Amino acid sequence: MSEFGGMDELLQDFLMESSELLSDVDNKLMELEKRPDDLALLNDIFRGFHTIKGGAGFLNVNAMVNLCHRTENLFDKLRNGELQISAGLMDVILDATGSVRDMFGALSQGRQPTDADPALIAALDAALAGQAIAPAAASAPASSAPGTGPDWNALYQAVTPQAPAPAQPAAIAPATSAPALAVPVAPAAAAPVAEPPKTAKPVAKSGGGGSSGQQENTIRIDTVRLDMVLNLSGEIGLTKNRLTTLRTEILQGNTDQNTLRSLDEAIGQLDLLVGDLQNAVMKTRMQPVGRLFQKYPRLARDLARQLGKEVELVISGEETELDKTMIEDLNDPLVHLVRNAVDHGIELPADRVAAGKKPQALVQLTAEQVGDHILIEITDDGRGMNADALRRKAIEKGLIDAETANSLDEKQCLQLIFLPGFSTKDQISSVSGRGVGMDVVRTNIQKLNGRIDINSIPGEGTRISISLPLTLAILPVLVVRACNQPFAVPLAMVREIIPIESGAIQEVSGRPTIVVRDEILPVRMLAGLLGWEPTQKPAFGVLMQSAERSFILAIDSFVGRDDVVIKPLQNIRPKGVAGATLSGDGSVVLVLDMEDLLSAEGASPVGNRLSELIAL
């Protein structure tokens, strides 16, 4: 039962609006650290925090009001020139915003948050009193997780050796008006920031705080886009009425040329309108990736401070739009990549200067639409990766044998970082070294039907490119046949279709292969992958490229390209099957998950379950 009674809808409005405001405040604080004299920036930060405090007061969230009031007073003193920005003061402010975010987590669960850590309150009061605040990096334990805040008890003792008990917060009258709110939405708070600042009092980190494991189930839509959907729906209704009239005439025996021509025109018009409606509906799901990117400047800043590095994260292409579901699923991969760039890629300032570089490193996060795909790139000007070193490390860890390693070219060696258990770190730390991050990145990108590529030059830096479809709702596929059954494979993996001539398949080390332009490629029989006995010799081969391998998928025939809407299978889902769709003639076509199917090769009788499913 919620503690907010009949105000639950207002609470959800507040969480949605204020979570976005807080993310904006965090980003502007990163900018303020670079431009401490920017009065306009300070005013924006002050207004954002004031709006959050006003909403909290309207909902009687006193713990948040008290914390926001102190932090707002700090901003006011900065605006008036009574205080100056310092690394220590910025650490105090950022830990306060992190504590507010934790409070959002409690609110998203329908309960009042607990008071902020008394040591943090004391540190804020000390800063307001004009006492110098030491940088948190000096007092933060070396083993602390990236993004965690300083030990405020220790820090407060450092600035006030004879510290009295924390002052009680001054009485604050609740605000009489709530902030400007969006249309009512379901519980959905800010997208998770990696490991919010840690306080002595742990609080819930779900919803408005850290990752809750639940995705938002609502979306904000521009009314212009909704109007377009409405207009198209009305036009489709008119066309439907026209088709109904023509159907009646034809059933009554009127099949003259004019009637048939009108029928053809109406069907053509309906086809165009349905296509336009489909595109309009897809656009309602599109959201700017800036919602996701806005969390990463603070992540990079906190981790760089912990590691003793100087890093600037530059973001561009925030307006690029991507399917909302994909934006949510991209968070974990991008968190890993930004952290890895700062931790693995960037050198310490002294090492950079010795190498002839600026002490401050540059990490760039960009997004742009390229054709029908979105390209996201993370680039750093750090130490880069050495292909030979990666090869040796993979052999040393027993991930591949020496013979396999020696057959890899430079690009394939870079792909070794995606192997489970691979890490270039000799010592495990709280930041990295366990070899799980990049494996998770590749797996999650593949689930989004995307590709990830790496380019790196030793001593100059690394660029990681992620290519994603605009949406997951509609999937371009190639429809193929095996054993007289149609199947759909993701078109993103298809490079070309080649005929398989008699004698083209040769055995190499006991495995079937085909030579394509002097490259020996393994052959995978689709019927064999499905666990079925082939009914004929394969006539065509589909050259497919996954994240780390190329192969030929041998098929009986192919139908052609199509754009399909995948329907999930309820209760029964054989390994290697992503879902099902309907063909033009109304028959069911199974959509194959090729990575899943290849990993299941020879492991289980996939074909039996497929036969049962097709029989249904």
UniProtKB/TrEMBL annotation:
Domain HPt: 3-107
Domain Histidine kinase, chain residue ranges per copy: 231-472
Reactions performed catalytically: ATP + protein L-histidine = ADP + protein N-phospho-L-histidine
Modified residues (Phosphohistidine): 50
Any one biological process term the GO annotation gives: chemotaxis
InterPro entries, alphabetized: Bact_Chemotaxis_CheA (IPR051315), CheA-like_dim (IPR004105), CheA-like_homodim_sf (IPR037006), CheW-like_dom_sf (IPR036061), CheW-lke_dom (IPR002545), HATPase_C_sf (IPR036890), HATPase_dom (IPR003594), His_kinase_dom (IPR005467)
E.C. number: 2.7.13.3
UniProt cross-references to Gene3D superfamilies, sorted A to Z: Histidine kinase CheA-like, homodimeric domain, Histidine kinase-like ATPase, C-terminal domain, HPT domain, SH3 Domains
UniProt keyword terms in alphabetical order: Kinase, Phosphoprotein, Transferase, Two-component regulatory system
Residue ranges occupied by any CheW-like domain in the UniProt entry: 474-603
Stretch list, region Disordered: 191-218
PROSITE patterns: CHEW, HIS_KIN, HPT
Stated role: Involved in the transmission of sensory signals from the chemoreceptors to the flagellar motors. CheA is autophosphorylated; it can transfer its phosphate group to either CheB or CheY.
Annotated protein name in UniProt: Chemotaxis protein CheA
Organism annotation: Crenobacter luteus
